[in-house]
Amino acid sequence: MERDQLADFLRTRREAISPSEVGITEGPRRRTRGLRREEVAMLAGMSVDYVVRLEQGRSSQPSVQLLGALARALRLSEDERSHLFHLAGHHAPPADQVARLARAGLVRMLDLLGDTPALVLSDLGELLAQNRMSALLTGEPGDLTGDRRYLVYRWFTDPAAREVAPPGERELRARQMVADLRATAGRRAGDPVVAGLVDRLRAASADFRRLWDAHEVAVRRADRKTLLHPRVGPLVMDCETLVTPDQGQQLLVLTPADARTRERLDLLRVLGTQDFPADTTGAPPK
Q1: Which of 99, 132, 158 is the endpoint of a domain?
Q2: Does residue 147 belong to any structural domain of this protein?
Q3: pLDDT, position 111
Q4: What is the residue-wise DSSP string for the chain?
Q5: Domain final residue, candidates 69, 99, 129
Q6: What CA–CA distance (Å, rounded) separates 281 from 62?
Q7: What is the number of domains present in the chain?
Q8: Do residues 17 and 82 both lie within one domain?
Q9: Residue 22: is its pLDDT beyond 80?
């Protein structure tokens, strides 16, 4: 780790970005060139103190997840991102792997939530991180590749992915997923990743084509869902979604909506993962 060079690089990149590039309004009294440290901290999901220590060459070695968050916050090019990782003493991962790293601040929140099920999703519904209770609730996702990383793709192409929902709720959930994907497609207009996913879904599923052509648009923030758990039965969960400033990642927190669900979650916590079959669909309740 080359602390001094890393500090200089982060400071110069921060000063080179205008607030408008990251959606921050510049006030008339603004005197700071580029972004403020607290703005970088907010965009990257880390503490201001850690940003200060990084720029002063006093920090411990940042993790790969934290570096990925900094690269996004500072809008680094692929070459600049690779340079950042090398200065911090890490091999630079592929660009798509960096984009799929959960923000460091969100990962810390998963730990702080403890026995409350919580998970981090990309704006396309890819599971990026989850805590233990979320894994007990929805199962481990397994090693998903290609379009199967995205819940919306699994939902429309794999019947097993829909078994987590009661039959009476499946149409509504499908509509919600498609409306959310359309909102993402609008926000990321021209992005070949999103456009390609939509094209492949249209080719694979008549239900998706029908709902996509309805042009419903909605970004979900709060919802109530029933989850069919193989060990403890139906669970009625309130789902609260917190979105990062760039809308690229979401923290989904699930809490029991009634006393019976609370009791069943307590039972699930005691049972743990003993004899729990792996969930091959990897379908979080988004």
Answers
A1: 99
A2: yes
A3: 82
A4: --HHHHHHHHHHHHHHS-GGGGT-PPPTT--SSS--HHHHHHHHTS-HHHHHHHHTT-PPPPPHHHHHHHHHHTT--HHHHHHHHHHTT-PPPPHHHHHTSPPHHHHHHHHHTTTS-EEEEETT-BEEEE-HHHHHHH----S--GGGGBHHHHHHH-GGGGGGS-GGGHHHHHHHHHHHHHHHHHHTTT-HHHHHHHHHHHHH-HHHHHHHTTT------EEEEEEEETTTEEEEEEEEEEE-TTSSEEEEEEEESSHHHHHHHHHHHHHTTTTPPP-SS-----
A5: 99
A6: 33
A7: 2
A8: yes
A9: no
Q: Enter the pTM of the model.
A: 0.66
Closest CA to 89 of 117, 66, 114: 66
Question: In the prediction, which pLDDT does 98 show?
Answer: 56
Distance CA 162, CA 83 (A): 43
**In this structure, what token pair is assigned to residue 118?**
């919580």
Give the sign of the dihedral formed by CA 207, CA 213, CA 216, CA 222. positive
- Considering the domain architecture, whether residues 120 and 214 belong to the same structural domain is answered as yes
208 and 259, same domain (yes or no) = yes
For the chain, give the mean pLDDT.
85
Do 143 and 260 belong together in one domain? yes
Same domain, 85 and 131: no
Give me the helix-helix angle, 3-16 and 78-87, nearest 10°. 150
Domain that holds residue 149: 113-271
- The rounded distance, in Å, linking the Cα atoms of 193 and 42 is 26
